[in-house]
Amino acid sequence: MSSSQAGPLILPLASPDASVELVGGKGASLARLSAAGLPVPASFHITTHAYRRFVGENHLADAIVAAGGQAGADDPAAFDRAAAQIQALFTQGAMPAEVAALIEQSYLALAQDDPPVAVRSSATAEDLPEMSFAGQMETYLNVRGAGEVLAAVQRCWGSLWTARALGYRAQHGVPTEDISIAVVVQQLVAADVAGILFTANPVTGARDEMMINAAWGLGEAIVGGQVTPDTIIVSRQTGAIASQEIASKAVMTVRVPGGTREEPVPEPKRRQPALQPAQAAELARYGAAIEQLYGHPLDIEWAIRDGRIFILQARPITALPAPRVTLEWKLPSARGQYARSSVIELLPNPLSPLFATLALPVWNETLLPVVESLGFDRRLAGKFRMLTINDYAYAQFDLSFGDSVRLLFSCPALVPRVIPLLRSGRARWADDARPHYANVVGAWAGRDLRAVPAQELLAGARRIVRAAASYYCTVQTGILPLAFMTEPAFTAIYNRFLQRSGDPPALTFVLGFDSSPIQAEKSLYDLAAWARTQPELAEYLARASSLDLVEALASGRSPIPRETYWREFAALFARHLAHFGHAIYDLDFVASVPADDSRPLVETLKYFLSGRGRSPYERQSAAAAARERATQTLLARLKGLRLRIARFLVHAAQRYAPLREDALADVGLGWPLLRRLLREVGRRMVTAGAIAQPDDVFYLTWEEAQAAARALDAGQTLENHLSSVAERRAAHQLESQAAPPVTLPVKERTRFLGLDITHWMPARAPQAAGNTLKGVGASPGRVSGVARVIHGPEEFGAMQPGEILVARITTPAWTALFALASGVVTDVGGPLSHGSIVAREYHIPAVLGTGAATDRIRSGQRLTVDGDAGEVTISR
Question: pTM score > 0.85 for this model?
Answer without folding.
Answer: no
